Amino acid sequence: MIWDDNKWKELLGDLVQTESPSGFVEGIRAAQQLIVEELPALELKHRFHETENGTILEIFRELEGKRGALLLSHADTVWPLGTLENMPFREEENRLYGPGVLDMKAGLVIGVAAIKDLSPGTPFCWLITPDEETGSEASYRIIQKRARQASVTFVLEPGGEDGSLKIGRSGVGIYRMMISGKESHAGLDPEHGASAVRELAQQILWLYSLENRVLGTTINVGVIEGGIRPNVVAGSAQALIDIRVRTQKERNRLQQLLSAPPQFDNRVRTEYHGSFARPPMDHNTRAESWFGLAKEIWDRLSGTDLAGINVGGASDGNFTARLSPTLDGLGAVGKGSHARNEHVNWDFMKWRYALLKELMEQAEEDEKDEDLRTNWS
Ligand SMILES: [Zn+2]
Q1: CATH pick for 171-278 out of 2.40.50.90, 3.40.50.11740, 3.30.70.360, 3.30.70.120
Q2: Angle CA(115)–CA(118)–CA(124) in degrees, nearest 5?
């Protein structure tokens, strides 16, 4: 075991202090470079893929006929340049704070530590992408390609607060509702107008009626606007909507409904524009035996139970769950992703690293993986 608290805290500090918001390609590249420099003496290959959103770093070890695991991670954060000034990297009671520390720079540290300690020759492929926080538009193709080639996919997003893994993730659809009505004077000529705002109100109620909390389908109309003055019947209105679904079936249902919405006032035109950028990670039976294995390892390491949870947030695991068994949330444990109190609970780090290392070593046994594939595809 090569776990060394001071060494890995130092690497985490370097990574956090290399600010890398999505879109800031120099910072993202600098963070990736830190990782490359940590893995010099080993027999690894790496390549940089240039994209319009920045560099994708791929680190890998090939072994004839064996697929190994795919590790998924991202170097970008949601925090704008300069955040460090009032949210510096700091340690308090074995908790480490700073922008992107949990999501997911500590996940990168776990990846480096696990790879350094892998038994010799274990094949794997590790992707460190630049645009996860903005939807992975430039990365999802290579993610899917590598997932097809891998025996299993491990995602280094943060786990739950007790360490739990994320075995189901919602798909996220972002839609814009656009309504055009007809303006008229609200006092002199109301019957000539067709109110887009009134239609908007009815559309919103219709949208919320489509929710299904039991199946995990939630709808949020987060932004509305419309009209120009109180005494003018509104000629236009629009809304921005966030839709989360847990299953492909629910996604299809919603997509179909939004392509042909009801018209409450026939003189008004309503259209929904948008799509599901990430598909749902269905409660993913293909990964069940991997989850069982993770539980066993975790129990042995920490003496505690490893739970599996369904969450509303999406990750790049949403892209891979259909292509290879996917365990998500294998990264650091802490609290406050995307929030100012974002921090990592360092006590978990040595177990997270050891869990990932053991899982990666198991992924090498391709006979078993072949079984998993045929039973579950
Ligand atoms: Zn993340």
Answers
A1: 3.30.70.360
A2: 60
